[in-house]
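Hey, can you fold this one?
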Amino acid sequence: MKKVILLFAGCLLFATTNLWSQGFEVWVSDAGGFNNPPWYIYKFDENGENQEEVMNESDNIEWPEDIFFLEDENAVLISNLSSSGGNISKHNIDTGDFIEIFAEVTGGPTRMKLGADGLLYVLQWSSSNNKVLRYELDGTFVDEFTNTGVPQSIGLDWDADGNLYVSSYGGSHVQKFDPDGNDLGTFIDSGLAGPTNIFFDKNGTGDLIVFNWNNGIIKRFDSDGNFVEDLITGVGQCEGVDFFPNGDMLIGAGAAGSIKRYDSNFNFIEDFVAAGTLLTPNAINIRDYPLSVPENELDQNFINPTMGTRFSVISNYSQNLKSIQVYTITGKLIETVDLNKSQTWNADNYAEGIYLLKAVSINGNSQTQKVLVKK
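Sure. Predicted structure:
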């Protein structure tokens, strides 16, 4: 972990812009033969080069489906669908070594995503036990969040009002739930062919983007669930997506065994990872090197994740902190979060870029962490 000392004297002072340079790793889950090995977790550099095998089936992964980082623990979670049920395993980020089972998920976990409440939301593949689950980031089970299930659920996202949307691969539909997990009915019920990933357009249109694995078409639907257009065609077995800070996106193309790069308007740029390099890519996670910037050289982050739009206080710290002050990279204070009211900073209304979050403890001490707002 890279450390930089920040001096606060009325405002933040920065000696050189080089302190804020950063690199990215692109982690990819390769499901191989689905319920049969081989299975891999790879990482590439930010140019799609220097491929490194981080894990395989000998590292306690089985039919991997998603990747989630616990930067404060230098650990990474892998959801394992597994023909015998499933679990979420925890591994060392640097070596890939198995640490422990984070959670047993009998319905077979697929996607994992951090919610605004700081909890990990987990989808299940099973046709019988398929409610959306929630976990603390230490693996403690919280609840079955949704009151009904979504069979073969494999994609999720939230709209601006906090409603949750979940795609059903086998049912070829997208289900909508309110912020409390109550079923609001089917949001999209036609025109889909094995939907996998879903996400709300990062350009702020309120449109929902849906990947269709079976026919290789990525579609746009409006905020009422009406079909708008086919954005991308010819991406057979499309599954797995993540975004660079400039809005470029990486998309897994299972039929080609590649990762493709598109700009924020869904225009093709390049094969980021060449065809035939992978077997069955099904999850992509762009990881920035975590640059915690503590004033007292503390070596752990207090916010998770380090990149995104919603940043939550890690539970181990929440009892000792009273507020989070948000600064721009130039040192301007733009917001203060009262942790008695919310444990999350929502950056949806701020521009993409680097921000500094200064945690103020009950006893007056403080620690500062750099995060990257990426939509």
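The first helix runs from residue 315 to 318. Let me know if you want another pass with a different chain boundary.
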